[in-house]
Amino acid sequence: MDKVYFVGGIGTDVGKTVVTGMIARHLLSVGVDATTVKLVQTGSPDGKSGDVAVHRALCGISLTEDDASGLSAPQVFRYPSSPALAARLEGKTVDLDAIAKAVLEVSSHHAVTLVEAAGGLAVPLTEDILTIDFAAKQDWPLILVANSALGSINHTILSLEAARSRNMHLAGVVMNGYPEAPEELVSDAFLSLRKTLSRLGYAEHIVSMPADCQTAGVDFGELFA
């Protein structure tokens, strides 16, 4: 099991925050000291990370010392947009060194750290660096969050090919069952995903997360096999 995992999505609003929190909850339930970090939090007028708060709530724990010190959300901006734009509107740039140092510090006192992305894999962090480029440079294994909504097959295949072109290790794919989709779309999405993983030489590690995941529970062990 690696120390740090990158939880990225095929786009915005595919469920990365809930997936990140649920994976952390699963790991804690099996005795693994896991925590989370938000790569960049945008859309935060109070300077706090709402996504990290969701992670903690899903795990059934209070905010941590890492949260109080800002390590779990090293870059926070007010405007709800890409990190690059949100920072620019405040006359700043995203401090990538600060992010790397924060993740290193958090991971030094936890067994597993899950780093949740902001938006999809190709969202700009700065004028020159995409989210996926930064994550690949850190050598963080990717947990890709997808769903079965109309158009998701295209986004998922493009995301996997982008990861492969950067030689990223893929821990696996989480298929978020929310919002619920027609069975035909779900079946086709799974079939296309398995074919793509096989074609790209990735292991077919796919975890299905149902819409009622918080009550049903999910075993994410396959991602860490």
CATH superfamily: P-loop containing nucleotide triphosphate hydrolases
How many domains, as an integer?
1
Structural class, from helix and strand content?
A: alpha/beta
Q: Name the beta content range.
A: 15-25%
Largest sheet report: 6 strands, parallel
Q: Give start-end ranges of low-pLDDT stretches.
A: none
How many H/I helical runs?
9
What portion of residues is helical?
40-55%
N-C termini distance: 8 Å
**Nearest-angstrom radius of gyration?**
16 Å
CATH architecture classification: 3-Layer(aba) Sandwich
Order of helices and strands, N to C?
A: EHEHHHHEHEHEHEH
- Mass-distribution shape: globular
Which key features would you list for this structure?
9 helices, 225 residues, 6 strands, six-stranded parallel beta sheet, alpha/beta
What does the model show?
The protein starts with a strand and ends in a 9-residue tail after the last helix. Helix 8 links the parallel strand 5 and strand 6. The protein has a six-stranded parallel beta sheet, sandwiched between helices. The protein has a single domain, classed as Rossmann fold, CATH 3.40.50.300. It contains nine helices and six strands. It has 225 residues and is α/β, with parallel strands linked by helices.
Topology:
Layout: E1 4-9, H1 16-29, E2 34-38, H2 50-59, H3 65-69, H4 83-89, H5 96-108, E3 112-120, H6 131-138, E4 142-147, H7 152-165, E5 170-176, H8 183-199, E6 206-209, H9 213-216
Parallel strand pairs: 1-3, 1-4, 2-3, 4-5, 5-6
Helix pairs in contact: 1-2, 7-8
